[in-house]
Amino acid sequence: MVTALITMAAIAWGSQILLGGWQLYRFNRALDRLCRDGRVGVGRAGGRFRPRVVIAVALNEENRICGTLILRGLTVLAAPAVVPALQGRLRQDLDPAVIFPDDPRCRQALISALKETPG
């Protein structure tokens, strides 16, 4: 019985490592594509036991958003996606409370990403 529990724990741990690596690989590829578009800022929000949110924003020379990336979820199965509500907007015209009215973690991550964007 103990051997079966140890085996199950080892399989779960190995699966977590593999799936976490796969998620990191997908996020890094999406972030690399975003970095080709312009200056990029990355912000995150969330807690240890709450779903985390990571938002990356790419700005062009005119301070217009030319690319976005959001990764949110509690598991390693969360996948990076685009935020269509941000595409083409000017940096100074953004109001995170309007874009994410029902999600305070997304608002905080967007605010953080805009602060981290150079320029």
Describe this structure in words.
With 119 residues, this protein is α+β, with helices and mostly antiparallel strands. Helix content is 43%, strand content 20%. It contains three helices and three strands. The chain has helices at residues 2-35, 96-99, 104-116; strands at 39-45, 52-59, 65-73. It has a three-stranded antiparallel beta sheet with strand order 1-2-3. The longest helix is centred in the N-terminal third of the chain and has 34 residues, at 2-35. The termini are far apart. The mean pLDDT is 90.
- Distinct helical segment count: 3
Strand order, sheet with most strands: 1-2-3
Q: What order do the SSEs take from the amino end to the carboxyl end, as H and E? A: HEEEHH
| Number of separate strands | 3
Write the layout of secondary structure elements.
Blueprint: H1 2-35, E1 39-45, E2 52-59, E3 65-73, H2 96-99, H3 104-116
Antiparallel strand pairs: 1-2, 2-3
Summarize the structure.
The protein is elongated.
Keywords:
3 strands; alpha+beta; three-stranded antiparallel beta sheet; elongated; 119 residues
